[in-house]
């Protein structure tokens, strides 16, 4: 049985980023990772532009307060100024409009007063050259690397790429993940339950975890606990996916057929059981380029194993340089007193208090208690042994969002 860190190392040792492809920069590119440096092909802004509604002036004209200037033109955003500003003159200008020749500063309209028909009095006492002007190339110069390879696309990064005029970029693909819940007792949601049956929670939950981790999930129903059917179901999917997630049937019971099925199909097993709670029966293997995870069937065990092992693998496949899981140290919002035989990951919630984030464990009854995980945005990590922690003591926390 491996420790969590060693099991994660086994997983990461077998994951490489997927080959990049040209991808459309639609909103669903959010979170995907750039595979190449992106350079600016032009200065931005491409012309000096006004940062305020007001008047484009020659700053030297405004050295004396109360100076009156003739307004000789008007420049709105989107037009090209045609008239230069001569000494004693100014141009009415609006935010985003290009600066006219001759002018080197903008006076906000709030710092002016009308002075007759076509003139203004400047009440701004110190007009500095360049004030309220966003000079050409301030944000970026042609040739600058604006976004480096390895950047995960945020909404702002998508905005930057749009600003560069790009509709496509070379991105690492979103990993394809096939989700296969197994168990004779399982029924899909929407169907009635017969005695002895329970509904398939893991399928929808894991598919959503895949999406949250930046992958694309597919599934084709539930696998039974019978060898020939499972062999066919798993065998059919192994080659067409980057990751196969089988949930349930990985433990040591008579009907836990997944290890045998994977062995029969030539999947090499690298991890079989991890010293953790919940989630001990985790299996990790690989065949060719496909990674295979056998997740325990208890829903919280499956969810925790996903976050600790599958999500980091998906992040590497998707080109992220930091696999995670993201672990931080936070003060406890309430006392914890429990004894665990293995390192334990319990559902918890972050709180924003007067001094910053704190973590509060949620009521939870163990591996089958998925309801206890529903509101969690974190896992509180408790070491093996006796944990008696006062409120405010520092604890390790795995972030889920
Ligand atoms: P197993 O790992 O197959 O031994 O299953 C462990 C427990 O998790 C059993 O109580 C199963 O009924 C339950 N379980 C397995 N798969 C699912 C699923 N997809 N949704 C909800 N519970 C499940
Ligand atoms: Mg089962």
What class, by secondary structure content? Answer: alpha+beta
| Terminal Cα span | 29 Å
Largest sheet: 6 strands, mixed
Strand runs, count:
27
Proportion of beta-strand residues: 25-35%
Contiguous runs where pLDDT drops below 50 for at least 5 residues = none
Rg result: 30 Å
Provide a short characterization of the protein structure.
This protein has six helices and 27 strands.
Explain the overall architecture.
With 401 residues, the chain is of the alpha+beta class. The chain is built from 6 helices and 27 strands. The strands form 8 sheets. The protein has a 6-stranded mixed beta sheet, with no helix packed on it. It is elongated and about 95 Å long. It starts with a helix and ends with a strand.
């Amino acid at each position: 049985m491996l420790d969590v860190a060693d099991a994660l190392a086994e997983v990461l040792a077998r994951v490489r980023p997927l080959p990049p492809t040209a991808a459309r920069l639609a909103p669903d590119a959010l979170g995907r990772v750039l595979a190449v440096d992106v350079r600016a092909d032009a200065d931005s802004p491409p012309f000096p532009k006004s940062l305020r509604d007001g008047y484009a002036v020659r700053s030297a004209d405004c050295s004396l307060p109360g100076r009156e200037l003739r307004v000789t033109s008007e420049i709105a955003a989107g037009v090209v100024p045609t008239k230069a500003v001569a000494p004693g003159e100014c141009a009415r200008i609006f935010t985003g409009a290009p600066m006219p020749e001759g002018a080197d500063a903008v006076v906000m309209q709030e710092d002016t007063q009308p002075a007759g028909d076509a003139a203004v009095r400047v009440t701004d006492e110190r007009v500095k050259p360049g004030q309220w002007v966003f000079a050409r190339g301030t944000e970026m110069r042609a040739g600058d690397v604006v976004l480096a390879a390895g950047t995960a696309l945020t909404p702002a990064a998508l905005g930057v790429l749009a600003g560069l005029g790009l509709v496509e970029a070379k991105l690492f693909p979103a990993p394809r993940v096939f989700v296969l819940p197994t168990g004779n007792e399982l029924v899909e949601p929407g169907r009635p339950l017969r005695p002895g049956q329970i509904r398939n929670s893991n399928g929808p939950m894991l598919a959503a975890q895949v999406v949250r981790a930046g992958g694309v999930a597919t599934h084709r129903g539930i696998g039974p606990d019978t060898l020939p059917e499972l062999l066919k179901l798993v065998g059919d999917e192994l080659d067409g996916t980057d990751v196969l997630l089988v949930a349930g049937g990985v433990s040591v019971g008579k009907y836990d057929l997944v290890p045998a099925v994977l062995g029969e199909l030539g999947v090499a097993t690298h991890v079989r059981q991890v010293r953790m709670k919940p989630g001990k029966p985790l299996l990790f293997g690989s065949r060719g380029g496909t990674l295979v995870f056998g997740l325990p069937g208890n829903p919280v065990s499956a969810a925790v194993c996903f976050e600790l092992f599958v999500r980091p693998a998906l992040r590497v496949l998707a080109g992220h340089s930091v696999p995670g899981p993201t672990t931080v140290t936070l003060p406890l919002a309430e006392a914890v007193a429990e004894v665990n035989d293995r390192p334990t990951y319990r559902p918890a919630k972050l709180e924003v208090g007067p001094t910053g984030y704190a973590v509060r464990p949620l009521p939870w009854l163990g591996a089958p208690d998925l309801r206890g995980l529903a509101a969690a945005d974190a896992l509180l990590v408790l070491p093996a042994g006796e944990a008696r922690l006062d409120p405010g003591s520092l604890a390790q926390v795995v972030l889920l969002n």
